[in-house]
DNA sequence: GCGACAG
DNA sequence: ATCTTGTCGC
């Protein structure tokens, strides 16, 4: 069976990103986003995929919903999925989005009252080569407010892990401190955030959909007990737990 | 040409 | 993403 060459596939994907990008709303669309203390916000979601060691095709897709501001788990869904595309930096959404959307559909079907009012995504939003990362992609297709939170710096539009960048990181003294991620064009694509007092390494926050950068950063800070915001952390922990119990590693 | 490169 | 337990430090 023949398939499209990878460079042709990538051209199609770039085209789709440019197309969907037109739908991104980079501003607060919800009442709670403007309210003091995020009054009116009751449910925050997190999504993640975990893999088995030697297998990059089978994965556990996870969706968690936590109460706000308590950050207690209200809902957790684990589902084994089969990935159909490889990981290529800049095209993560084509690998993960279909399964994350499926998880949101299951929630809509089974517990619609628990639908999150905002979803934290493991990866970037506007902080992306073409300003349309996973958090934007999922946000647009699900039509939900989304925030991108990456644990590592993607080298984007002149933003690199240079001495200057490391120097800026060292200026982050306490939880909530930030510095902007500014593209060569001068546009601020996201912010590095010290998410907890204990962690020196920042997370990289960017707009996914239907939220402003300032609100995204303040909300990420408000949802972080440790370095990784709690909705994503719970999704990560629970998907790994699922793999441990259903696919125990073989010992020698 | 070489290296960098979210998860 | 994953390979991996204990260990050093606050």
How is this structure best summarized?
With 252 residues, the chain is of the alpha+beta class. It has seven helices and eight strands, in the order ααβββαβαβαβββαα.
Layout of helices and strands:
Blueprint: H1 6-21, H2 31-34, E1 43-52, E2 55-67, E3 73-82, H3 92-110, E4 118-122, H4 134-142, E5 146-150, H5 163-169, E6 178-182, E7 188-193, E8 203-209, H6 213-222, H7 230-246
Parallel strand pairs: 1-4, 4-5
Antiparallel strand pairs: 1-2, 2-3, 5-8, 6-7, 7-8
Helix pairs in contact: 3-4
The structure holds two DNA strands.
- Total E-strand runs: 8
Backbone structural class: alpha+beta
Average of pLDDT? 94
Low-confidence stretches: none
Radius of gyration: 18 Å
Kindly report the CATH topology of the domain at 34-149 and 209-246: archaeoglobus fulgidus dsm 4304 fold
What strand line-up does the widest sheet have?
3-2-1-4-5-8-7-6
Distance between the termini: 38 Å
Biggest β-sheet: count, sense, barrel? Answer: 8 strands, mixed
CATH class of the domain at 34-149 and 209-246: Alpha Beta
CATH superfamily of the domain at 34-149 and 209-246: archaeoglobus fulgidus dsm 4304 superfamily
CATH architecture classification name of the domain at 34-149 and 209-246: 2-Layer Sandwich
Keywords: Cytoplasm, DNA-binding, Endonuclease, Hydrolase, Magnesium, Metal-binding, Nuclease, Nucleus, RNA-binding
GO cellular component, one term: cytoplasmic stress granule
Subunit structure: Monomer. Interacts with PABPC1; the interaction is RNA-dependent and stimulates ENDOV activity.
Family: Belongs to the endonuclease V family.
